[in-house]
Amino acid sequence: MENIKIVGIGGSLATHSGSLHALQTALHGAKLQGAEVKLFDIKELNLPFYDLRSNVVPSDAKLLCNSIAEAQGLIWSAPLYHGTISGAFKNVLDWLELLEEYTPKYLTGKVVGLISTAGGAQALQAINTMEYVVRALRGFTLPMVVPIPRAWQVIDKDGTMKDANVEKQLLNLGKEVFNTARQLSGVPV
Ligand SMILES: Cc1cc2nc3c(=O)[nH]c(=O)nc-3n(C[C@H](O)[C@H](O)[C@H](O)COP(=O)(O)O)c2cc1C
């Protein structure tokens, strides 16, 4: 049986990114189930603005889209900026326009698990924004989501999860993305 591949996209431009650590935990949850996981850190990707005036396609944008095309599931983890996702995260999502040229197009047939981190008391707005994008790209979102309010209280700078309940939710999200990706690819659970 071919491995189930899960691609993670997330993080921020901050030196210590809680949304990146949350993504790492969720991908670990998928890996524990046997998934082959690949993480794309927004900061390391460092993609230029998606610009229709330019014909230059960065190699990392191609690599990202090729990896997504090969994957059955994804996990996105974004920080909440001014009630939505950050510009850096949205720019990476803009580069998924390259998937228009793929068969099947965009995220057709793939499941996406969603995570967000916020400084304030709620974090769902970034998740809601990402849901719109997944739908626009013809994918499915996992009903279970992990919004992490007051992330600074939950995730240490070194990535340690200070809240066992949140850690469990993230590991479980990875597991559920794996299970759903397996089901969508026709492998019985
Ligand atoms: C420009 C900017 C805008 C922000 N806007 C919000 C916001 O609207 N609501 C909120 O709860 N936190 C807001 N925050 C706090 C971040 O969501 C929070 O620090 C988050 O954990 C950052 O994730 P990261 O550690 O991956 O960078 C904002 C932070 C920045 C830098």
Structurally, the number of domains stands at 1
Helix vs. strand class: alpha/beta
Task: Give the CA-based shape.
Answer: globular
Bound molecules: flavin mononucleotide
CATH superfamily: Flavodoxin domain
Mean pLDDT: 96
CATH class: Alpha Beta
Q: Helical content, roughly? A: 40-55%
At CATH level 2, the architecture is 3-Layer(aba) Sandwich
* Extended strand count: 7
**Unreliable stretches:** none
**Biggest beta sheet summary:** 7 strands, mixed
What order do the SSEs take from the amino end to the carboxyl end, as H and E? EHEHHEEHEHEEHH
The helix count comes to 7
Q: Whole-number radius of gyration? A: 15 Å
Please describe what this structure looks like:
- With 189 residues, the protein is an alpha/beta fold.
- It has a single domain (5-184), classed as Rossmann fold.
- The protein contains seven helices and seven strands.
- The chain has helices at 18-32, 42-45, 59-70, 87-95, 124-136, 151-154, 164-184; strands at residues 5-10, 36-41, 73-81, 84-85, 111-117, 140-141, 146-148.
- Strands 1, 2, 3, 4, 5, 6 and 7 form a seven-stranded mixed beta sheet that branches.
- Helix 1 packs across helix 7 (164-184).
- The longest helix is centred in the C-terminal third of the chain and has 21 residues, at 164-184.
- It is globular and about 45 Å long.
- The two termini are 13 Å apart.
- Flavin mononucleotide binds next to helix 1 and strand 3.
